[in-house]
C-alpha cells in the first residue's frame, strides 16, 4: 500500500492487523497496586518495519495510553501526532507526521488499566488470610485478551520473545510467569521480580500470577511415555504419564477419556504440594498424598469444568471404596508398613477412594473456608519437610477448634465404615450405628460420625457428631424456614408425617457411610424425590438421549449416553444389540461415518463381541482388523478391553492368546490402579 493511500479510517472494522510492522521482542514491565486494583506499566517492543508507513496499528483494550515514542535503528525518535484507541475494534492506532524508517526500531508505550473481575486479561481474585480478604492477580489471555493487559500484536502468528518484570509486589506474595525468576529485588515491604526471557511464543500464551502460596519449582514438564508401568508419576517438576493418560485425540477420545485425562493431570499436579512439597514421613501415611491428591483433583476439575458435574463421578469412585471396605479382608487407611516393598499392595481403593472420601467428609463438616485455611497452614509449616497423619489433624484442630484427631482416628486407624439407622420418635431423631459388612459377621466397631442433614430444604442444614452407638437430636434443633414445613414438623411422629415433610441424612453423599431410614422416613424421601425436592446424583433416566448427539450437547449427556448404552449392551438388550451391530457395519464401510462417533464406539464393540461365537468369528476378526489398522492409543485400548466381553469360552481363550502376542501391549490391557 502506497504511503498516500494510507488513511486512519481504513484500519477500522478489519479482522486482522495490517502488516506494516511485526514484533520481535517485548520488554514488559507491570506495576501492580493490589489495594486499588489497578496496574500501570510500560512495554518496549522491538519491531521490524517492513514497509513505508506513517501508522502503527496494534491491539489494546480497556487501557489508558499515556506516552508513546518510536526510535529507529538510526536513533531517530518519532512521537505520534495522534493516538487513537478504538474500543470497538480493540486497536491502538499511532499516527506519525512522517514515514517511519524501514528496518528495526523500538516502540515504547506507557499505559495503565484496572484489574478486572471478568476472569480474562489481567484480573484479580480474592482469598482469605487470617480472616482478612485480600487480592491476588492472574491472567487468562487465550484467545484475544493479552490486549487487556498490555498493547501488543495480539495474533497467534505474530510470535515474539518476552522479558517480563513485575513491580510493587508485596514481599509475602509469590510472583510467577512463564519463565524462571532471574532476579528479585526487595524495597522494604515490596519487591521487583525479573523473569528470564522466554522463547518465541504467541501473546495468548503469556501468563502472570501473583498469589499467596508458591508453586515450589521453576518449571513443570509433562511427558507421555509409550511404555510406562503406571498411569502417571508425579516426579518433581517432571511428570511422566502413560500415553493414554495424557494424550488426547479428538477422533478417538470419548468424553469419559477426556474427563479421566483431566482428573489424572490434576491429580499429578496436586502431588507437587501433597506428596512433593510436603512428603509423608513413611509409607504408613501413603494415603496422605494419594487420598488428598485424589480429592484435590476432583476439586480442581469441578472449578475448571463445572458443567461436567464431576462430583457425580466422584460418588461412583466412592462406591468402589465402600464396596471394598465392606469386605472382611479390608484394611485401615493407615497400615503399618515394615517393608517398603510391601506398600505396593496398598495402592488400592482404600488408599485412593476411601482416603479421598474421608477428606471430603471432613471438609464438608468443617466448612470450606476453615479447611482451606488449615491446608495452607499445613503446607507452610511442613514445606520441603515430612509430615504424618497426626500432624495434619493437629493443624486442622488448631485452626478449626474441633478435635479433628479424635474424630478422624476412628476413620483412618480401623477398617470398615458404619451404616446409620435413623428413625423419628415423636420430636426426636434417633441415630444408631453398626458396621456395614458384606458377610454376616458381627462387629462392635464404632466411629465418630460427622453427620450432615437437611430438613424440608437444602437451606435448612445441620451438622451433628454421632459420638456413641446411639445418639439423639431434637427435631427443633434443625431450623425449618417454611410455614408448611414448620407445621408438619411440629405435629410429626413416626406414624403421622406430613405430606411435604422430609429429612435427608448425608447431604450430597459427602460422608463415607451408608444410611438406613425407617419406613416412614423413607416414604417421605420417595415423595420428595418424586416432587424434585432433592438434588439428583443419579442422572440416568432424566431424558431419552438416544444414540445420536444433539447440537450443543453437554459432555455430561455424552457420558450418560455411553454409560446407559454400555450397560444395555452388556445385558444383551435386543434393540440395543441390533442397533449397535448395524452401526458397527456402517463403521466398517466408512471410518468417518457419523453413525458411530467415539462416544458410542465402545457400545458397538461390546455388542459385536457378545454376538461372537466359535461358530461365527466374523465380528471378532473385524475388530482385530480395526485394531491393527488404527494408530491411536486410545482406540487400541478401547478395542482390547471390549474383546473380553464375549461369553463364549472358546472365544475368550482365543482372545487371551491374542493378548499374549507381540501385537498387543500389556500397558494398554491392564488398567492402572487410579493414578500414582
TrEMBL record:
Where along the chain is Zn(2+) bound? Answer: 267, 271, 290
Q: Does the keyword Protease apply?
A: yes
Per its Swiss-Prot or TrEMBL entry, what cofactor is needed?
Zn(2+)
Tell me where on the tree of life, at the top rank, the source sits.
Answer: Eukaryota
Instruction: Specify the signal sequence span.
Output: none
Q: Name one Pfam family in it.
A: Peptidase_M1_N
Peptidase M1 membrane alanine aminopeptidase domain spans which residues? 214-411
Claim: Endoplasmic reticulum is one of the keywords in the record: yes
What does the entry give for GO biological process? peptide catabolic process; proteolysis
Question: How does the protein associate with the membrane?
Answer: Peripheral membrane protein
InterPro entries registered for this protein in UniProt: Aminopeptidase_N-like_N (IPR045357), Aminopeptidase_N-like_N_sf (IPR042097), ERAP1-like_C_dom (IPR024571), M1_APN-typ (IPR034016), Peptidase_M1 (IPR001930), Peptidase_M1_aminopeptidases (IPR050344), Peptidase_M1_dom (IPR014782), Peptidase_M4/M1_CTD_sf (IPR027268)
**Which residues make up the annotated site Transition state stabilizer?**
352
This entry's comment on the bound cofactor is: Binds 1 zinc ion per subunit.
Where primarily located?
membrane
Ranges for the Aminopeptidase N-like N-terminal domain?
Answer: 22-205
Please state where this protein is localized.
Answer: Microsome membrane
Keywords tagged on the record: Aminopeptidase, Endoplasmic reticulum, Hydrolase, Metal-binding, Metalloprotease, Microsome, Protease, Zinc
- GO MF entries: metalloaminopeptidase activity; peptide binding; zinc ion binding
Domain ERAP1-like C-terminal, residue spans: 543-663
Q: Where are the transmembrane segments?
A: none
Residues forming the catalytic site: 268
Q: Extract the SUPFAM superfamilies matched here.
A: Leukotriene A4 hydrolase N-terminal domain, Metalloproteases ('zincins'), catalytic domain
Please tell me one Gene Ontology term that the record gives under cellular component. cytoplasm
Q: Which family does it belong to?
A: Belongs to the peptidase M1 family.
Can you say what this protein is called? Alpha-aminoacylpeptide hydrolase
Q: Which organism is it from?
A: Sesamum calycinum
Q: What is the lineage of its organism?
A: Eukaryota, Viridiplantae, Streptophyta, Embryophyta, Tracheophyta
Amino acid at each position: 500500500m502506497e504511503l498516500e493511500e494510507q488513511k486512519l479510517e481504513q484500519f477500522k472494522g478489519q479482522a486482522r492487523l495490517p502488516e506494516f510492522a511485526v514484533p520481535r521482542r517485548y520488554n514488559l514491565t507491570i506495576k501492580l497496586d493490589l489495594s486499588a486494583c489497578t496496574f500501570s506499566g510500560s512495554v518496549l517492543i522491538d519491531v521490524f518495519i517492513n514497509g513505508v508507513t506513517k501508522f502503527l496499528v496494534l491491539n489494546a483494550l480497556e487501557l489508558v495510553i499515556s506516552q508513546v515514542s518510536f526510535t529507529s535503528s538510526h536513533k531517530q525518535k518519532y512521537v505520534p501526532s495522534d493516538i487513537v484507541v478504538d474500543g470497538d475494534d480493540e486497536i491502538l492506532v499511532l499516527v506519525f507526521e512522517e514515514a517511519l524508517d524501514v528496518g528495526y526500531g523500538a516502540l515504547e508505550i506507557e499505559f495503565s488499566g484496572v484489574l478486572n473481575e471478568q476472569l480474562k486479561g489481567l484480573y484479580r481474585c480474592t482469598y482469605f488470610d487470617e480472616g482478612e480478604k485480600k487480592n491476588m492477580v492472574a491472567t487468562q489471555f487465550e484467545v484475544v485478551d493479552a490486549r487487556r493487559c498490555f498493547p501488543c500484536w495480539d495474533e497467534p502468528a505474530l510470535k515474539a520473545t518476552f522479558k517480563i518484570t513485575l513491580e510493587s509486589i508485596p514481599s509475602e506474595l509469590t510472583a510467577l510467569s512463564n519463565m524462571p525468576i532471574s532476579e528479585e529485588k526487595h524495597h522494604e515491604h515490596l519487591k521487583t521480580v525479573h523473569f528470564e526471557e522466554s522463547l518465541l511464543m504467541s501473546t495468548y500464551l503469556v501468563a502472570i500470577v501473583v498469589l499467596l502460596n508458591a508453586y515450589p519449582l521453576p518449571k513443570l514438564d509433562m511427558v507421555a511415555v509409550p511404555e510406562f508401568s503406571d498411569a502417571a508419576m508425579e516426579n518433581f517438576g517432571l511428570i511422566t504419564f502413560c500415553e493414554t493418560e495424557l494424550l488426547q485425540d479428538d477422533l478417538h477420545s470419548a468424553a469419559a477419556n477426556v474427563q479421566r485425562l483431566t482428573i489424572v493431570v490434576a491429580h499429578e499436579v496436586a502431588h507437587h504440594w501433597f506428596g512433593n512439597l510436603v512428603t509423608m514421613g513413611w509409607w504408613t501415611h501413603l494415603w496422605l498424598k494419594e487420598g488428598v491428591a485424589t480429592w484435590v483433583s476432583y476439586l480442581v476439575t469441578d472449578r475448571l469444568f463445572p458443567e461436567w458435574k464431576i462430583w457425580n463421578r466422584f460418588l461412583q469412585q466412592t462406591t468402589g471404596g465402600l464396596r471394598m471396605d465392606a469386605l472382611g479382608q479390608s484394611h485401615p487407611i493407615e497400615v503399618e508398613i515394615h517393608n517398603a516393598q510391601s506398600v505396593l499392595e496398598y495402592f488400592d481403593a482404600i488408599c485412593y477412594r476411601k482416603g479421598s472420601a474421608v477428606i471430603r467428609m471432613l471438609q464438608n463438616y468443617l466448612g470450606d473456608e476453615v479447611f482451606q485455611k488449615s491446608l495452607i497452614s499445613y503446607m507452610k509449616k511442613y514445606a520441603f519437610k515430612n509430615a504424618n497423619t497426626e500432624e495434619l489433624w493437629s493443624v486442622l484442630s488448631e485452626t478449626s477448634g474441633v478435635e479433628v484427631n479424635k474424630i478422624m482416628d476412628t476413620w483412618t486407624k480401623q477398617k470398615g465404615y458404619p451404616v446409620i439407622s435413623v428413625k423419628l420418635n415423636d420430636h426426636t431423631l434417633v441415630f444408631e450405628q453398626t458396621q456395614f459388612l458384606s458377610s454376616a459377621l458381627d462387629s462392635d466397631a464404632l466411629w465418630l460420625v460427622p453427620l450432615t442433614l437437611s430438613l424440608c430444604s437444602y437451606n435448612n442444614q445441620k451438622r451433628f457428631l454421632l459420638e456413641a452407638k446411639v445418639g439423639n437430636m431434637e427435631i427443633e434443633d434443625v431450623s425449618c424456614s417454611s410455614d408448611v414445613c414448620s407445621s408438619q414438623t411440629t405435629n410429626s411422629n413416626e406414624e403421622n408425617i406430613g405430606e411435604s415433610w422430609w429429612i435427608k441424612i448425608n447431604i450430597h453423599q459427602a460422608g463415607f457411610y451408608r444410611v438406613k431410614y425407617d419406613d416412614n422416613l423413607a416414604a417421605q424421601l420417595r415423595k420428595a424425590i418424586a416432587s424434585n425436592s432433592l438434588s439428583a446424583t443419579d442422572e440416568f433416566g432424566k431424558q431419552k438421549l438416544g444414540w445420536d448427539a444433539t447440537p450443543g450437547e453437554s459432555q455430561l449427556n455424552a457420558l450418560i449416553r455411553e454409560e446407559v448404552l454400555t450397560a444395555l449392551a452388556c445385558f444383551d438388550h435386543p434393540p440395543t444389540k441390533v442397533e449397535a451391530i448395524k452401526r458397527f457395519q456402517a463403521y466398517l464401510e466408512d471410518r468417518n461415518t457419523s453413525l458411530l462417533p467415539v462416544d458410542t464406539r465402545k457400545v458397538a464393540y461390546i455388542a459385536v463381541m457378545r454376538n461372537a461365537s466359535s461358530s461365527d468369528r466374523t465380528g471378532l476378526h473385524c475388530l482385530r482388523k480395526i485394531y491393527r489398522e488404527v494408530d491411536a492409543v486410545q482406540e487400541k485400548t478401547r478395542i482390547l478391553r471390549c474383546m473380553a466381553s464375549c461369553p463364549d469360552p472358546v472365544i475368550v481363550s482365543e482372545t487371551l492368546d491374542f493378548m499374549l502376542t507381540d501385537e498387543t501391549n500389556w500397558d494398554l490391557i491392564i488398567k492402572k490402579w487410579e493414578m500414582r
